[in-house]
Amino acid sequence: MPGRAYATRRILRQPTRHAAYAAGKGLAGPDRLSGMSNVLTAVAWPYANGPRHIGHVSGFGVPSDVFSRYMRMAGHDVLMVSGTDEHGTPILVQAEQEGVPPREIADRYNRVIVEDLHALGLSYDLFTRTTTRNHAAVAQELFRTVYKNGYLIEQKTSGAISPSTGRTLPDRYIEGTCPICGYDGARGDQCDNCGNQLDPTDLINPRSRINGEKPKFIETEHFFLDLPALADALGDWLRSRQGWRPNVLKFSLNLLDDLRPRAMTRDIDWGIPVPMEGWEDNPNKRLYVWFDAVIGYLSAAIEWARRSDDPDAWQRWWSDPAALQYYFMGKDNITFHSQIWPAELLAYDGKGAKGGTPGRYGELNLPTEVVSSEFLTMEGRKFSSSRQVVIYVRDFLARYQPDALRYFIAVAGPETHDTDFTWSEFLRRTNDELVAGWGNLVNRSISMAAKNFGAVPAPGELTETDRALLAKSAAAFEPIGQLIGTHRQKAAITEAMRVVAEANKYISESAPWKLGEDRERQGTVLHTALQVVSDCNTLLSPFLPHSAQRVHELLGGAGVVAPQPEIREVDDLDGGPGYPVLTGDYADVPAWAPTPLPAGRELAKPKPVFTKLDPSIVDEELSRLGG
């Protein structure tokens, strides 16, 4: 089906069991992933008020993609979903400043973000947006059911307005001193320093972030999520979590100490209408952006299924108790994923103190794990677009290879503690590790084999040294898979690069370039080296999918080993404006296991896989930074 109509439907990929997996080999995930599993990778929704910088994708983007790519190779059926978050105050304020409708801002940056994540190779099954009619319908269904079950209560509260304009001043645009930790710069909805949720009236010396004036507080009415009625259920769920990063679980459990009703509607005219009688026609009342944004994980899965040949397929990840769900984000979003979203789900399922029954979607699964990364800073400073202490994803990828950025994030990113990105360290990691390590192994092995044999040489009798290297390479799959499956990606890629180093050492000590008169031994050494190159390429492909495909082709391989996402223009399923999505077919991937390299396979003409960087880039990039 040509044109836009084609893009509104896609064939639902079926779960695939690789031969190695079916034989009990190659599955290297943690015990809780033994056997075939449906795995939901729920990736934080980037906000569509501007392009995303490399700090953003270090938290939600690359870690989630590495995990998903590995899980598919290990035999699991993965659904990776997200989209742009497009409601709320910042877009509204920016639209007012530019004199354009909010939808224009959302449309502009939705496309920018889609293009950037595509260029980075993030393998979403569906990357959509929150301004679709499908998402609005799903969010309103959850709201109605949570209300029906008694967990949304109407309360009067203080709302802020701007004295100079008389307009509502949303929580996010009020700042002041946090009453809990004393941080001067806390927002009216949350303190980014201590992570606690706040109300504008909690702040000491509140002021408008727009013009600095002191807000005026007036009485207004909103729906509040009754978190105290969900406290026991939330606590039981959190205390049952195993394998979480300790800082994430500790922070989440600490949130239980101060549970109070939280407003789930806002005085704003940009967002999803409140689906209650007397409210839905009110142009100044909308669902709180954080109530609807987290529902996007469910609505995106439903949209993906609706665009397939099985509209109920989303239930395999949301209704099956055996399914697993992993949520990826930066640490500033933990609260919303370990408290607000689980509370919404528990309330929808009717599992709080007030009881209740699930709505039309049936009982929905709670997260298996909240996988939160820390912050990435830049040259010792926090990212700041206004101060030009920033590099956006598209600007980075215009000058450097995507796998160079992916490698840096994997090996030196903010996995469990804040990490500083410096251009000198990026230069060193790229040149000394990617180029001189992995790139050198690929180039020297294939170059010598192509020059001397023109194809993968047949091995002769193996020595103990040959066998030891091959055994080390084959044995690396299980522990590296375990590390990726338990979100220890830094350790995983370090182990893979350790095999690369062993292979480079093997070639240097075996010196195949000196074995011209002993063709059998020369062929054996080069066959061994090429087999390890193939193994390492599989081990590194979740991290470095662009170069994995190139190495596969240099080794004479056919087909796709590291599928890339594609951008498709689609129509809104329910009649709204069209938009671009990221999607792809990732089912046909190699197994997470060594694959014997056939002798006689013709080798491609060798060429460098990675670009060596000139040291001058450090000064050039530093000169682009502000201040």
Automatic annotation (TrEMBL):
Zn(2+) binds at residues 178, 181, 191, 194. Its cofactor is Zn(2+). Binds 1 zinc ion per subunit. Keywords: Aminoacyl-tRNA synthetase, ATP-binding, Cytoplasm, Ligase, Metal-binding, Nucleotide-binding, Protein biosynthesis, Zinc. It catalyses: tRNA(Met) + L-methionine + ATP = L-methionyl-tRNA(Met) + AMP + diphosphate. Its EC number is 6.1.1.10. InterPro entries: Anticodon_Met (IPR041872), Met-tRNA_ligase_1 (IPR023458), Met-tRNA_synth (IPR014758), Methionyl/Leucyl_tRNA_Synth (IPR015413), MetRS_core (IPR033911), MetRS_Zn (IPR029038), Rossmann-like_a/b/a_fold (IPR014729), tRNAsynth_Ia_anticodon-bd (IPR009080). It is an enzyme of class 6 (ligase). GO terms for biological process: methionyl-tRNA aminoacylation. ATP binds at residue 385. Residues 456-576 form the Methionyl-tRNA synthetase anticodon-binding domain. Residues 40-445 form the Methionyl/Leucyl tRNA synthetase domain. One of its GO terms (cellular component) is cytosol. The keyword Aminoacyl-tRNA synthetase applies. Pfam families: Anticodon_3, tRNA-synt_1g. It comes from the Bacteria. It is found in: Cytoplasm. Belongs to the class-I aminoacyl-tRNA synthetase family. MetG type 1 subfamily. NCBIfam families: metG (TIGR00398). PANTHER family: METHIONINE--TRNA LIGASE (PTHR45765), METHIONINE--TRNA LIGASE, CYTOPLASMIC (PTHR45765:SF1). Monomer. This is Methionine--tRNA ligase. It comes from Actinocatenispora thailandica.
